[in-house]
Amino acid sequence: MTTIRQGDVIQSVADALQYISYYHPLDYIKNLADAYAREESPAAKDAIAQILINSRMCAEGHRPICQDTGIVTVFCKIGMDVRWEADRSLADMINEGVRRAYLHPDNKLRASIVSDPAGERINTKDNTPAVVHMELVPGDKLEITVAAKGGGSENKAKFAMLNPSDSIVDWVLATVPTMGAGWCPPGMLGIGIGGTAEKAMVLAKESLMDPIDIQELIARGARNPLEALRIELYEKVNALGIGAQGLGGLTTVLDVKILDFPTHAASKPIAIIPNCAATRHAHFVLDGSGPAELPVPKLSDWPEITWAAGATARRVDLNTVTKEDIATWRPGETLLLNGAMLTGRDAAHKRIQEILGRGESLPDGIDFRGRFIYYVGPVDPVREEVMGPAGPTTATRMDKFTEMMLAQTGLLGMIGKAERGPAGIEAIKKHRAVYLMAVGGAAYLVSKAIRKARVVGFADLGMEAIYEFEVEDMPVTVAVDVNGESVHKTGPAHWRARIGRIPVAVA
Question: Which of 18, 163, 166, 395 is in the most buried spot, having the most CB atoms within 10 Å?
């Protein structure tokens, strides 16, 4: 009989969360590097390069892969012969581990969890509580899988209750394009089939904890219908041409994982949950001998890849740029931004809307006239950093505020992640503004372009406060031009037609 000590659980969870904040799983790195080698789309290849370079930088610097350090999900398999030396519940031990990990002074992680989700949405300040799943199993060990799931990918989860005769493949191929690119492909799709509604969702999430092995599966061939379904979905989802960051290309997913469970004869529940480019999970077993020890990867496990903006990249001075200047920018063009920008995301936009709705002026220091806003909630800096990892957040969440911002604040343009929706594009076209895209999954790389940072408004919002950043050669892509043309529409359509396996009308 094994005795599991409370301190070992807390320390192991804390260590694992720190570990996955800066180390990608090596199976992800290998498969992403292979996708980089195969990629033919210049825009997608550029995005994958930035993700891989960012990953290596994070492994070296022990800083978060993504500014969104996630909501913690923990799967526990508890041996029925385990004894406990503890005065807390297992969930409380896990939450203490989360608290210690996210407040670690050498690598403080962003606290993103809010309580009272239907009301005041108050940040809990330490990223607790975690979502914990527990299962009693035979044995005398405690097996734990820890994951940190970013909001951009979690928000794209989909569920349906299909009829028993409905095609799973058809539903997935119709659903994936509706997810947009806010989940930061290339990543993985986790699919849960069967059980009940809640069981299908848990199955989908749990499937993402397994290593990437689709290439080995394709090489040996499917041995059962579920493996055949994985291969078919992997090939057909990639044939949609969505590509890295939704820019169009050969690789949208690195793997498709499926778990199933018996279900009611009248039902066919199905869930999809994507894992983003910041795939973060770790597995360990406690046997009573002490805290878990996770293997430290070697930097030689990362590919040697360099990134350059290219000879055609245009340097832009944000301090002097005009509406006439932005009218010359073309979709897909690479820009290197220099100068001052403001930041802001959901909570800041909502507060701005309330202030302007009351007929009041924005507080001193918040002046968007002739400026750009960067949709970001950064990680706090440590040591000599000006700012911690500061990658973009999903831009579509700000679409409902775009008309207000462009019409009432004098804003010139926006920077974010992934595509804009119809309302956002219509406002951009109407006001002849622009939307620029930074690579999601390259947060630490982006932060190195920030030379100065200060809070200029709404400090009480924490990571959602409005900052002023001074940047130097921050790389972005023109995603929507002043005429409303979007690379997230033209790019995938081009590559879907070029691949030629899926009718263009699927989207």
Answer: 395
